[in-house]
Amino acid sequence: MPQVEGVPDWVHLLPAGAVRTMDGRGPYAVKSLQAVAAASLPAGGKLPIDECHAIDRAQPLGMSAPARGWIVELQAREDGLWGRVEWTPTGRQLMEDKAYVGISPAILHTQQGQVLQVLRASLTNTPNLQGLTSLHSENTTMDWRTKLIELLGLDSEADDAAIQAALSAKMGAVQTEHSQNLLQHPAVLALQSQVVDLTGQLQGLQEDGKRTAATAFVDAAIAAGRVGVKPLRDDYIALHMENADRAQKLINAQPAVIGAGLADAVPDQGAKPGDLTATDSMIMSLFGVDEEEYRKGLAASGQQKGNL
């Protein structure tokens, strides 16, 4: 912080907006710096500046409490209330010696913490109010808290929690924008393309594996003479690839018609070529298979009984 040589003409008495303290009192609020200035310094008046609050602490005990300067003008600025000081010789010497670092005002406020008036001020090395410019710093020193409130678009009365929440939201927005920009980086796009290709290859391998297993099962069922499977071979393969358990349950429920004994079955008396035998009728009745499906099964197993 740049230091000012010599004696300051103006001292910073109150910050703008919320007034916070080092000892935890408050916070206080300044709704109108102009109103506080008008109430604190009537025309022709002046406010004393003592040392270490001597007027409030030493004077009631009968001890000396001389003024080291007089505030003769108040000015409402963007960063708070400032006072122009006419220093006494002793006060000027104290300023030249840099004996004190700050100013501590005595204020009048309501029970709700609204500042109504500055009564006086005191030279101190332990200033209690936050956000004040020190006695030997340039008056252009920025009040970072006030600046943060302004930059974040918050109300001047915003507390620390509101400032922190606004900062977190702002940082989150910046992080989101950064992430979106990162996703458009050529290297990231190339990696995403590779992931898509690998995913496609993996899905293809899984699909091939399912098809191989389904085809093997369905063809085995056809070889075993499962009725009605061969005409619906592709459908059963597709079903098996989608739901192997269901396909196997449906196929295994079909009767198996194998021609070892059936091919030699003796036709009924007077039967014509291609007619079904009594054994065929028994099998259809036993397994609940209609004639058309039964003939298809026989045809699939090479035991054609006639044309439909």
Tally the helices: what do you get? 11
Strand order of the largest sheet: 1-6-5-4-8-7
The amount of helix comes to 40-55%
Whole-number count of domains: 3
SSE-based structural type: alpha+beta
Question: Largest sheet, described in full?
Answer: 6 strands, mixed
Instruction: From the alpha carbons, calculate the radius of gyration and give it in angstroms.
Output: 49 Å
How would you describe the shape? rod-shaped
State the distance separating the first and last CA atoms: 106 Å
Which whole number gives the mean pLDDT?
A: 82
Low-confidence segments: 260-266, 304-308
Assembly type: single chain
Approximate strand percentage: 15-25%
**What's the β-strand tally?**
8
Helix/strand order, N-terminal first: EEEHEHEEHEEHHHHHHHH
Pfam families: Mu-like_Pro
Protein name: Phage I-like protein
InterPro entries: Phage_Mu_Gp1
Organism: Novosphingobium hassiacum
Task: Summarize the helices and strands and which ones pair or pack.
Elements: E1 10-15, E2 17-19, E3 28-30, H1 33-40, E4 47-51, H2 54-57, E5 69-77, E6 80-87, H3 89-96, E7 102-109, E8 115-124, H4 144-152, H5 160-183, H6 186-223, H7 233-242, H8 244-252, H9 259-262, H10 278-287, H11 291-300
Parallel strand pairs: 4-8
Antiparallel strand pairs: 1-6, 2-3, 4-5, 5-6, 7-8
Task: Write up this protein.
InterPro entries: Phage_Mu_Gp1 (IPR012106). This is Phage I-like protein. The structure is a single chain. This protein has helices spanning 33-40, 54-57, 89-96, 144-152, 160-183, 186-223, 233-242, 244-252, 259-262, 278-287, 291-300; strands at residues 10-15, 17-19, 28-30, 47-51, 69-77, 80-87, 102-109, 115-124. The protein is an alpha+beta fold and 308 residues long. The radius of gyration is 49 Å and the shape is rod-shaped.
